[in-house]
Design brief:
Layout lengths: L4 H30 L6 H8 L3 H7 L3 H15 L2 H9 L3 H4 L3 H12 L10
Helix pairs in contact: 1-2, 1-4, 2-3, 4-5, 5-7
Length: about 120
């Protein structure tokens, strides 16, 4: 049975979304392991066996990818990345909900619970 054009496009969009998510997740892993400032196309590409230029196809530049990494870190409560963003005055990290910022700072300081607060 032959796929119609609309089914083919839908299938390709889904594959594209999956590839984009794979790149984002790899970038998050790099940020956790090597630091948010050390996210590089070459490292991400090597980890998921793609070319660095394919990353540019899904994320127009590294700034865009880093913004999406920070947004995902805030949404997924990946405090190690958020704390690095706060330390570098990343605009998204600075504007994150107070609860996330508090936990990120506590993570950075090695404090469990909510002992230090931003008020």
């Amino acid at each position: 049975m032959k796929k119609s054009k609309s089914n083919w496009r839908s299938s390709n969009w889904r594959k594209g979304d999956e590839r984009r998510e794979e790149i984002l997740n790899s970038a998050i892993e790099v940020a956790v392991e090597l630091g948010y400032k050390n996210i590089q196309r070459e490292i991400i590409a090597r980890r998921i066996n793609i070319t660095p230029s394919l990353i540019s196809h899904y994320f127009i530049n590294m700034e865009t990818l880093k913004r999406e990494v920070m947004a995902a870190a805030i949404e997924r409560n990946i405090y190690i990345i958020v704390s690095q963003g706060l330390g570098n005055q990343d605009p998204q990290a600075v504007l994150a909900p107070d609860k996330v910022k508090n936990k990120a700072l506590n993570h950075l300081l090695g404090i469990n619970g909510s002992k230090m607060r931003l008020d």
